[in-house]
Automatic annotation (TrEMBL):
SMART domains tied to this protein: HMG
Xref: PANTHER family: FI18025P1
Domain HMG box: 59-128
UniProt-annotated stretches for the region Disordered: 119-168
Protein keywords: DNA-binding, Nucleus
SUPFAM superfamilies found in the cross-reference section: HMG-box
DNA-binding annotation, residue ranges on this chain: 59-128
InterPro entries: HMG_box_dom, HMG_box_dom_sf, SOX/SOX-like_TF
Ranges of biased composition (kind: Basic and acidic residues): 119-129
One Gene Ontology term of the molecular function aspect: DNA-binding transcription factor activity, RNA polymerase II-specific
Protein's UniProt name: HMG box domain-containing protein
Length: 168
């Protein structure tokens, strides 16, 4: 199986030292080393985050097998740098690779996820997953409930003398 990227979606600048064809078959892509946090160079200039601000006491959820695989895949630098910034494309690529993993390899990641859950449980014994309430969703639901008893508004016709027709 060979993976190729559309030049308009993932432009790669020309470099005469690089090979003309990049082999992204599962066999070549899956040859990556596990990298520890200490070995990963930190980027000095950080971008402002659009994520919700978590309080200092927030305990993250334990990672599942795919999340562990994804983070290891990114840290091993198996993906060209210009694609790495585009998380949508990156997730699609990693998702395809994840789906094509051999069962033995996938089992390895499942075992690592169980191990990560056990570590999480020992580190945070009282932690329980409790999804937070989305304030916007609650407000939307309340508005919907208020309007439930009201009859729907009548539609106005552009030409009141013309008969009503159903448009498709």
């Amino acid at each position: 199986m060979t993976y190729s990227f559309d030049a308009e979606l993932t432009p790669i600048p020309y470099n005469p030292d690089s090979p003309s064809v990049v082999d992204l078959s599962p066999e070549s892509v899956l040859r990556f080393e596990l990298v520890s946090e200490e070995e990963v160079p930190r980027i000095s200039a950080t971008r402002p985050s659009h994520a919700k601000k978590r309080d200092a006491g927030h305990i993250p959820r334990p990672p599942n097998a795919f999340i562990l695989f994804r983070s290891s895949f990114i840290k091993s630098e198996s993906v060209p740098g210009n694609i790495e910034g585009n998380h949508s494309t990156l997730s699609k690529i990693i998702g395809i690779v994840w789906k094509t993993l051999p069962p033995a390899e996938r089992e390895l990641w499942e075992k690592r996820a169980v191990q990560a859950q056990a570590e999480h449980r020992t580190r945070y014994p009282d932690w329980r997953f409790r999804p937070g309430t989305n304030v916007d969703a609650i407000a939307k639901r309340k508005t919907k409930d208020k309007n439930k008893d009201r009859p729907p508004p009548e539609r106005r016709r552009r030409n009141p003398t013309a008969p009503a027709t159903k448009s498709l």
